[in-house]
Amino acid sequence: MLSSGASPVAPWPRVRWGTVGEVDPRGESLLDAAERERLAALRAPARRARSLGAAVLMRELLAEVAGCRPEEVGLDRTCGCGEPHGRPVPTGGAAGWCVSASHSGPFVVVAVDRQPVGVDVELVRDEAPSRQLLQRVLAPGEEPPLGAAGFAALWSAKEAYLKALGTGLSTPMASVRVWGDGSVSAGRGAPRGWLQELVPSTPLPVARAHVCRLVGDDLRPASRVGETDDDAQEA
């Protein structure tokens, strides 16, 4: 189980871990028609399982914090272009909440909050990142991370921020800087975010994950992520 902290001003987002094998296939009944159509279009079984896992965990966690049933939670994914591939916006019984989900390999992680939130999990690759990839990710003057695990951690931190920002990878990662105090920003005028590395009670070397919340400098969240009432499903 993740440690939890309390803050009367800005507690951390609620987080839930899962693995693909733990997701009940019957959870597909929670999806709306458009989601089921997109799921059916995914040919690779692993991709379908990860997408289904994220959709189910989002509804389950949103239902818990909103005090409703998962069946009452909707997810509007309408993008600015009008297509249904934007970031999920809770509707129905969970309207007013913010949610983010990520999956990599067998792992799925979801975060919900009242403020814009982003979460990302990345598998640790067998090889260290190439120079070209580092140039795409590192901000000017930013120190290169140590090894593949350090790179996965840096990537997950920056992508979690970009997801909270709402731009995703359309914003260059090299414009994002992670600071030593746990904050993250993307240049003048961009909102500041606060990061927390997600660490299960039995840390595994195969993945790194971060959650990011956009808040003001005077509203830094508590020191640890707020876990759901039941045990975290360790990734």
UniProtKB/TrEMBL annotation:
Q: Extract one GO molecular function annotation from the record.
A: holo-[acyl-carrier-protein] synthase activity
**InterPro entries in alphabetical order:** 4-PPantetheinyl_Trfase_dom, 4-PPantetheinyl_Trfase_dom_sf, P-Pant_transferase_sf
**Pfam families assigned:** ACPS (PF01648)
Single biological process term from Gene Ontology: lysine biosynthetic process via aminoadipic acid
- Which ranges carry the 4'-phosphopantetheinyl transferase domain? 116-178
Q: Which UniProt keywords apply?
A: Transferase
Q: Which GO terms describe its cellular component?
A: cytosol
Q: Which family does it belong to?
A: Belongs to the P-Pant transferase superfamily. Gsp/Sfp/HetI/AcpT family.
- The name of this protein is 4'-phosphopantetheinyl transferase superfamily protein
Which species is listed as the source? Kytococcus aerolatus
The organism's taxonomic lineage, starting at the top: Bacteria, Bacillati, Actinomycetota, Actinomycetes, Micrococcales
